[in-house]
Amino acid sequence: MQEKNWLGTGDPMFDEPYIDVDEWREQPTRHRYMHGGFVGTETRFSLYLPPADRYEGRFFQHITPVPDSEHLAQGATGEEDKISFSVESGAYFLETNGGGVFGGYGSDDPTVAAYRANAACAQFSRQVAAETYGSHRPYGYAYGGSGGGYRTIGGIENTEGVWDGVVPYVIGSPMAIPNMFTVRMHAQRLLRDKLDVIVDALEPGGSGDPFAGLSEEEHQALSEVTRMGFPLRAWSGHKSMGMHAFPVLYSGMRAADPTYFDDFWSTPGYLGSEAPPSLMRDRLRLRCQVTAPVFGTDTGGSGAAVDVQPGQPHGGVDTAWRGSQGHQQVPVGFRLSAASDVDVQGAELLIRSGPAAGARLALLSVIGDLATLGPDNQDVALQIAVGDEVEVDNSGFLAAQTYHRHQVPDSDEYPVWDQFRLPDGSPMYPQRPMLLGPLFAAAAAGTVQSGRFQGKMIVVASLLDREALPWQAD
Fold this sequence. Notes:
The protein is of the alpha+beta class. It contains 12 helices and 16 strands.
């Protein structure tokens, strides 16, 4: 079909669509599969079209948290089988790579990855559908969660006539990132030995008072995170909570506000300047050497989790950091010549010698002598050799845990921050030069959410969500 004279999409960047695969497939259900893209771009898409007697004039489009593979639906089963669900619902299914992780995301124009690539593919899919099923305009419905929720909202707010309805879910506010993560992590650190007691208090037959038996510092931490909107009953899942997407966000924090991490430990008004004993107890600065790389899920029974982080791509070469890059295995962590005397959630591995000297890698965890790498470290990880001098330092991650105190918005739309205001309404803590939340939101959605759009929207949220705290849906 590549020789067809397709019409453009109305966006000059996407004026030359093409199809390079067109075939019938029988799995997971009979459908016509088409793959293509746009000349001069990295944007790619997959279309899964039902037989004509099963088509009812609509399409569904999944918006991933970040630009990802256009092949994610293939091989999915059960509840994740988007192809069969679409066919059963009289729809064709569309998925894209969001402009390409390298060709769109991270480019000088964030609108490409935010919504333009997805919108161009949706508009072009209508041309294909009209040629396949006869002249008509299919109704289009997009949906996505977390970062995909931001991108879904950004799509319908910044376009007209592309999607008739959208369903963003587990959605954050324009002030969500990184604040909803930092406040939770602060509480996790201080309450780690009391969370089972807190959960028991909230269970049937419990005391009903999760604050009973807490020290003053622990009481303050639980009060702070609860007043920020964290649902108390969600602590029932604390053993699997981890840091969620924070390792992905941390490098963005450092890039956007690098001086904060020094100010935290040196400037009055920040917790680290007069660090309480619990903060010094949990601070780790460990100089040592690399003794061995660790590959795949071979973490020696330490309990360290190695997997794709939330908000990271799940398809194709973008998961190379988990095990291979071409023919070369990529370490997921390193054994060290010295062991940490405390289990650390989140730290940095500072490379002091060897080819990677000067690099700074985010860590998911440090358990004993095992440092587990975070995402996007594969290029540097391949340069690290046995015997290289390194330092494990969690000073930055500790500083990040109270960053939300220094991000009090001017708007009264965010009453959860009132706990950080003095009686006259002014912030009680020093404030940073900028609010990072709107910057992160605009980077994902193309613009900060405005609430102005054409079409219909259903926002889906959970009252027990521990990352997209439920008040943000409102």
